[in-house]
Input
Amino acid sequence: MKLATGILFTEKQIRQRVEELAHQIDADYRGKPLILCAILKGSIPFLADLMRRLTGDVRLALLEMKSQVDGVHANILFTSTMDLSGQHVLIVEDIVDTGITLDYLIKHLEVERTPASIRVAAFLDKPEARKLDVPVHYRGFTVPDKFVVGYGLDWQERYRNLPYITWVESE
Ligand code: IMP
Output
C-alpha cells in the first residue's frame, strides 16, 4: 500500500468543519452538562480540536475499542470509570465504517452505564461500507469507500500525524 498523492480534506477545511460542529453541539446542549466519550486512538485530533471549541459544561471520558478481524464483533479494551449514569453522553469517533464498533458501544453504554442520552459525533462517515444501522448525529464529512488516513486515522498505526485527510492505495 502507498499513500495517495491527492488530499480529500485540507487542514483549513477540517478546521472550518470542526468549528461548525462545535457551534451545533454547543447550541444543542446549551444548559446541559455533557460528557464526551472519545474512542482512542483515532479520535484524538478531532477530540482535541472539538473540545477546545465547546463552551459549555464539558467533561471527558476515554475508552479504547478493538474492531475484531472477523468483521462481526467489537470489544472494549478499557474505559474510564467516570459515572455516566443519568448523564448526557456524546461519543466522539474518528470514522463510522461498517458501524459494528459503534453499534456495540451504544448497546453496551445503554445497558451497563445507563446515561440519560447518547449521541454520536463522527469526524468521518463512510456510508457505502455500512453493515449496521447506527445513528450519526454530528458528522464532519462523508467519504467514499477508500481506506482514509490522517488527522488521527491510521493504516497499520501510521499516518495518524498527517494534518489532512488522504487515503492509501495498492501499489
Ligand atoms: P467500523 O467498521 O464502523 O466498526 O469501524 C471501526 C474502526 O475501524 C474505526 O473507528 C476506525 O478506527 C477503523 N476504520 C474504519 N475505516 C477506516 C479507514 O478508512 N481508515 C482508517 N481507519 C478506519
